[in-house]
Write a structure and sequence with these properties.
This protein has helices spanning 34-45, 63-71, 73-83, 101-112, 117-142, 158-165, 178-191, 207-223, 232-240, 286-296, 334-339, 355-362, 391-403, 405-421, 424-438; strands at residues 25-28, 49-54, 96-98, 146-150, 168-172, 226-229, 248-250, 272-277, 301-306, 324-327, 343-346, 367-369, 383-385. The N and C termini lie close together (8 Å). It is α/β, with parallel strands linked by helices. The strands form two sheets. Strands 3-2-1-4-5-6-7 form a seven-stranded parallel beta sheet, sandwiched between helices. The chain has a six-stranded parallel beta sheet with strand order 10-9-8-11-12-13, sandwiched between helices.
């Protein structure tokens, strides 16, 4: 791999041969986001996973689970579906270090959010710093060759420990550049004041707390030896703000192409169903999607919104009669829901690289996305790239695909092929090679 931020998006097979001997790597991420679990899976498969430091982790079926299953079968079945999201059999249980206090604090924060916001903020900072110290202690104790640290959780203790001990530090940025988000927030507050209160949906937008988080993320960038980003858009934004390009690698995410697949007997006709999936929030560009839909809606066309509405929909209320709201959908139902649509639309204003965009491609959906969405869609091949907040361009792209079943059919085939090129094994190989560069194992 080149040590520059050369885009990988048009050559996903270029990183198929990981180095033979990487050495030991510690992975740190407190939640169950797919790129973190997949990093642990890939490193374990290569024999290089030293520790996976995370939040709550379900150890799998054991004595306690069996007792709960017998005493409370219905409740246990529901609980186990949730627990399975915090477990993967490909990650050796002996390599997992579970900091369950992170999730306990997070649950307490959610209860305090509206009643005692100052207490919530204090608890959030305690939770973040405690996990940071946990990771630092693991690094000091284990002395791995490298540490792969996901956003926000290594700023004060873990990254300085890496520098002090000579451990290569690799930051996985799962979000866009914070300076870009600050600009988005300032613009939306002025130009979309009606939708600004639902920028995060039900999440309370506390600019003071966000400034604290942004400051940590900027220090992460400075203190890491290498930075992994999931899209060219983020790499270009970082470079524009002064991060050396030879410090950045672009490694896109992936979808499970076995679960997410096109409908075998699908026919593209004059009717067209457009699908949006994700949080129905202003950060995802929902205002601009609904405005574009008003320009083009017609009999036989549908716009489906898959995701949770804010408890107070506010400005969304006047649009809900014009769309089909599918609500939250169980994880097991997502592939079928996505594959039943004709076009995927995701006009996000600020993102890392939304995994849902890969899942849509895997289902054979031509996609209309913004550069900020972090998608691997190529203009005119698997869909269209439109500028964020540009209602006319968004409406034009939707209308073009809605009016042309043959174009949709050809792009659907290209979308599936593209998704198959960006699978998790490719992510594993590219990730391992990038860590090896940081650790000095390859040039």
């Amino acid at each position: 791999m080149s040590t520059t931020a050369t885009p990988h998006l048009d050559c996903p097979s270029a990183e198929t041969n990981p180095p033979a001997a990487l050495g030991s790597v510690l992975v740190a991420c407190p939640d169950a986001r797919p790129p973190a679990y997949q990093a642990a899976i890939g490193l374990a498969g290569a024999g290089s996973l030293d520790r996976f430091v995370t939040g709550f982790y379900y150890g799998g079926h054991g004595t306690a689970s069996e007792l709960a299953r017998q005493l409370f079968p219905c409740q246990f079945a529901r609980l186990r579906r949730a627990l399975r999201k915090r477990h993967d059999r490909r990650i050796p249980a002996s390599r997992v270090e579970s900091a369950w206090s992170f999730d306990a604090a997070l649950a307490a924060e959610n209860r305090l959010a509206t009643r005692l916001p100052s207490a919530q903020h204090a608890l959030a900072r305690w939770r973040t710093r405690r996990f940071d110290r946990t990771v630092a202690r693991a690094i000091e104790r284990r002395r791995p060759q490298a540490a792969l640290i996901f956003s926000d959780v290594g700023t004060e203790h873990a990254l300085p420990a890496c520098r002090r001990l000579g451990v290569a530090s690799v930051l996985s940025m799962v979000h866009g550049d914070v300076r870009e988000e600050k600009a988005v927030l300032e613009r939306e507050a002025v130009e979309a004041p009606d939708f600004f209160p639902i920028y995060l949906g039900d999440g309370r937008l506390d600019l003071g707390a966000l400034d604290w988080l942004h400051e940590r993320r900027l220090r992460d960038i400075e203190r890491s030896d290498r930075i992994l980003v999931p899209s060219d858009h983020i790499a270009e934004t970082l470079a524009r703000h002064g991060t050396p390009r030879d410090k950045i690698d672009v490694i896109p995410y992936a979808a499970d192409t076995r679960r997410f697949a096109p409908l075998s007997q699908k026919r593209h006709a004059v009717d067209c169903t457009f699908l949006f999936a994700g949080g129905i929030t202003q950060r995802k560009g929902i205002k601009y999607l609904l405005e574009a839909w008003r320009l083009i809606r017609r009999p036989g066309w549908k716009l489906q919104l898959l995701g949770a509405l804010p408890s107070d929909p506010g400005p969304l209320a006047g649009h809900l009669g014009e769309v089909e709201h599918l609500g939250r959908v169980a994880h097991s139902e997502m592939p079928a829901r996505m594959a039943a649509a004709d076009v995927f639309v995701f006009p996000s204003l600020f993102e890392g690289s939304a995994v849902v965009t890969y899942e849509a491609l895997a289902c054979g959906l031509p996609s209309i996305v913004t550069p900020e969405a972090g998608s691997v869609v190529r203009e005119g091949v698997e869909g269209y790239l439109v500028p964020s907040r540009d209602v006319e361009s968004l409406a034009e792209a939707m209308e073009r695909l809605g009016n042309d079943p043959e174009l949709r059919a050809s792009m659907a085939l290209a979308a599936r092929t593209r998704a198959e090129s960006f699978d998790w094994p490719r992510y594993h190989s590219a990730l391992i090679r990038s860590i090896a560069v940081a650790a000095g194992r390859v040039s």
